[in-house]
Specification:
Helix content: 40-55%
Order of helices and strands: HHEHEEHEHEHEEEEH
Low-confidence stretches: none
Strand content: 15-25%
Distance between the termini: 51 Å
Structural class: alpha/beta
Number of helices: 7
Number of strands: 9
Largest sheet: 7 strands, mixed
Radius of gyration: 18 Å
Number of domains: 1
Length: 259
Amino acid sequence: MLADYKKNAMMSLLLNDIRFFMHLIKKISKSPSVIHIISFLCYWYVRFVALTTHWEKRDIDVFYDNLKKHKAVIFIAWHGRIAFAPYFWNRSSKLSALVSPHRDGQLIAGLLKRFGIENISGSTNENPRSAAVKLLRELKSNASIAIIPDGPRGPSMTMTMSPIYYAKTTGKPVIGLTYSIAKSKILSKSWDRMLVPLPFQKGIVAVTKPFFIPKNSSKEDLEKYRLQIENEMNELTWKLDKELNMPKIEQGTMPRKHH
């Protein structure tokens, strides 16, 4: 009984710390030094939670097999489930991630860098041509790329066409990763409904099947592939959440507009 009380008290303190840091992130300026500190703290928190979570891994071997077979993949994860995705990446394979030059993107960049993932600054919404050139160069040299297909500003869990374009151009497969962890906090005020887990819980991580986009696909075909991948990513995320008694995350949310 006392042990349960201590455990619950510790988790309550951790959750308060998480809320404090999320509040701090919203209030900080674009100071590189402050962003560096926050990303450093986030990295160690992610590692601590990941190491203390009892993980059930589904189809991760299939993911690694595809990576080995095709040399490179287009790796995608939703914005609200990005924090723990790099933990499962095979560090022996090069991965470059497209990150937004904005504040939240730079926080993610700092986290990814500490996991050995290279960053490409850019956006599929702002100056997309420059970002496309950099990402295509990586894929053609058999280096995998990572894209947050609903970032940087949503709508949440709604995929842009960019992963489809890179898959069609290079012949590399699109593979999505998602996860859920029991008793996590859902940040309902964040546009992406970020999942913030606590340590010592049960977690499930899973990947989608690989999606290949034929080079001769029509515009209508490309939209069908886009919707197919989006639906599979969402259905998989919702399935994992349901298994761990987590609430179903709403799709299509966007940041509030400030007037």
